[in-house]
């Protein structure tokens, strides 16, 4: 969603060493397919195999794209279309007063709300867990889901809250002053995940 | 953004950012049972109104409350203003009490600018930062009205750039007209002021708009027509022969509204005097965006409070 969440505190310095590739375009596709299979396996009703009670909600910007990709993969593998939405957590963040007012992103919760649904919250990178906390608060305003699970493409550690992901594309141990750069074809023209180190910052 | 005093302080990017925020806030609240966001918890918004108002005051109060700010209303009647306290003392008193934002409406043009200057000077001493929002100062400006009109135009016409908007009636006394002319021009619209020459302000030829006296000739080419109320309370002279003649020449009758293109919308900042500047059947027709303007007013004012108060104080 915003750069500072994916990177360390030194982002403002802007000096980034050449990135080291963590996932290639093919790896990204494969990882998303694996996550889709895991979601189907864990979410499908044990007796009927139905996915009718599930909904994927992405956290903008790249979480929403990942949610759409996962939705398409789930439809391909299971033959069931799972509704996909997005929820902007900006209004619920705990760090709003630490910087200038942030731009808001799209909120698009499927009609009918989230009551009694199994919500899979989707984001690109999990770090402190603060964005997920904000998104959970935002979700609760749209109804009372049966359960909420979390899917992330990259878990880079450095948690500051008791939050863990249910589906992880790749675990990447990182230093705080490193940055995870996630790119998706839809907005970046290319798929890929890279690790970069910021230099000259305070991190 | 520190204060919102005039639309001329906003460039196209800033104005568009405010409109985008308003759209997102509308989305975030859509279909929810509990219309409450935690974003401005612990912030205090005081509305200070020296003139009567329904829409502006209530929508600022709702905007603040929906974002969890504490909102307090002060009106000239019933406050120490009636005991003779000056505008400066009243506004600095409110700021000293810890108001993060003071929304002010005043009959004198430039009142909000003066208050902003006083609170900025006071800030150097006290360290208290108070944002001032102009909610209408005399015949000068009404920035949030122009923003909500722009939001409505964008929503109903799909865009603002290149659209032609007619503003009809008492331009002389209208802060809404002035704010709209400058904001819509900034956003790329073509604005036409349509009014009898007696109701045009001095210097209007320097505004970024065209002026016309012929309503019927302009209507067929407009994408939106904004009718203004004749502000009898500000008129201390004869500006037109009679209300009846004004209604006949500049009122939006059903026959006149039929001259508009099919896609065009009818707007009015309110309060409207039915039968004077707008016929009741036109005000209630599907092409009327008047209640949409009111709805957008809440979201636009939420966006303004968000941009002023949500981030770190600069």
Explain what the structure shows.
- Chain B: InterPro entries: Asp/Orn_carbamoyltranf_P-bd, Asp/Orn_carbamoylTrfase, Asp/Orn_carbamoylTrfase_sf, Asp_carbamoyltransf, Asp_carbamoyltransf_Asp/Orn-bd.
- The complex is a heterodimer of chains A (203) and B (314).
- With 203 residues, chain A is α/β, with parallel strands linked by helices.
- Chain A is built from five helices and eight strands.
- In chain A, strands 3-2-4-5-6 form a five-stranded parallel sheet, with helices on both faces. Chain A has a three-stranded antiparallel sheet with strand order 1-8-7.
- The radius of gyration of chain A is 17 Å and the shape is globular.
- Chain B has 314 residues and is α/β, with parallel strands linked by helices.
- Chain B folds into two domains: 7-141 and 297-309, 3-Layer(aba) Sandwich (Rossmann fold); 143-294, Rossmann fold.
- The model of chain B has no long low-confidence stretch (mean pLDDT 94).
- Chain A binds chain B through residues 88, 91-92, 96-109, 111, 113, 137-138, 141-142, and chain B through 1, 17, 20-21, 24-25, 27-28, 30-32, 34, 36-39, 67, 306-308, 310-312, 314.
Features:
heterodimer, A: 203 residues, alpha/beta, Rossmann fold, 5-stranded parallel β-sheet, 3-stranded antiparallel β-sheet, 5 helices, 8 strands, 27% helix, globular, disordered N terminus, B: 314 residues, 2 domains, 4-stranded parallel β-sheet, 11 helices, 9 strands, 39% helix, Bifunctional protein PyrR (chain A), transferase (chain A)
């Amino acid at each position: 969603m915003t750069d500072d969440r994916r990177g360390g505190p030194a982002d403002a310095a802007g000096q980034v060493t050449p990135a080291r590739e963590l996932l290639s375009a093919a790896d990204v596709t494969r990882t998303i397919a694996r996550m889709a299979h895991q979601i189907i396996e864990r979410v499908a009703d044990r007796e009927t195999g139905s996915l009718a009670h599930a909904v994927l909600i992405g956290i903008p910007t790249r979480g929403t794209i990942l949610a759409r990709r996962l939705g398409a993969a789930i439809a391909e593998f299971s033959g069931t279309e799972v509704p996909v939405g997005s929820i902007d957590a900006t209004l619920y963040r705990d760090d709003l007063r630490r910087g200038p007012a942030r731009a808001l992103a799209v909120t698009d919760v499927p009609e009918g709300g989230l009551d009694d649904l199994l919500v899979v919250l989707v984001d690109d990178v999990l770090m402190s867990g603060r964005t997920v906390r904000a998104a959970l608060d935002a979700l609760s305003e749209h109804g009372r889901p049966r359960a909420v699970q979390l899917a992330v493409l990259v878990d880079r550690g450095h948690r500051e809250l008791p939050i863990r992901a249910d589906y992880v594309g790749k675990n990447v141990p990182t230093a705080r002053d490193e940055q995870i750069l996630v790119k998706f074809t839809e907005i970046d023209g290319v798929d890929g995940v890279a690790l970069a180190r910021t230099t000259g910052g305070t991190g | 953004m520190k204060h919102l005093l005039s639309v001329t302080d906003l460039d196209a990017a800033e104005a568009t950012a405010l409109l985008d925020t308003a759209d997102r806030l509308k989305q975030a609240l859509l279909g929810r049972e509990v219309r409450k966001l935690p974003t401005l918890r612990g912030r205090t918004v005081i509305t200070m109104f020296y003139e009567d108002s329904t829409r502006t005051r209530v929508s600022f109060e709702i905007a603040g409350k929906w974002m969890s700010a504490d909102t307090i209303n002060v009106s000239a009647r019933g406050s120490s203003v009636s005991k003779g306290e000056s505008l400066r003392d009243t506004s600095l008193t409110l700021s000293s009490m810890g108001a993060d934002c003071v929304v002010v409406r005043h009959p004198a043009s430039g009142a909000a600018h003066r208050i902003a200057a006083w609170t900025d000077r006071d800030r150097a001493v006290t360290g208290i930062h108070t944002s001032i929002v102009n909610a209408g100062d005399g015949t000068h400006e009404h920035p949030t009205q122009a923003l909500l009109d722009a939001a409505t135009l964008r929503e109903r016409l799909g865009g603002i750039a290149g659209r032609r908007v007619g503003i009809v009636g008492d331009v002389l006394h209208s802060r809404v007209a002035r704010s709209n002319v400058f904001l819509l021009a900034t956003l790329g619209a073509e604005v036409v002021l349509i009014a009898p020459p007696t109701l045009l302000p001095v210097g209007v030829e320097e505004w970024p708009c065209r002026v016309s006296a012929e309503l019927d000739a302009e209507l067929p080419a407009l994408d939106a027509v904004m009718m203004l109320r004749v502000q009898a309370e500000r008129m201390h002279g004869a500006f037109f022969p009679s209300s009846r003649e004004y209604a006949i020449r500049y009122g939006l009758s059903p026959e006149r509204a039929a001259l508009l293109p099919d896609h065009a919308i009818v707007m009015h900042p309110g309060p409207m005097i039915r039968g004077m500047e707008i016929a009741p059947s036109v005000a209630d027709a599907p092409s009327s965006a008047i209640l949409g303007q009111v709805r957008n007013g809440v979201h636009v004012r939420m966006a303004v409070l968000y941009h002023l108060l949500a981030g770190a104080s600069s």
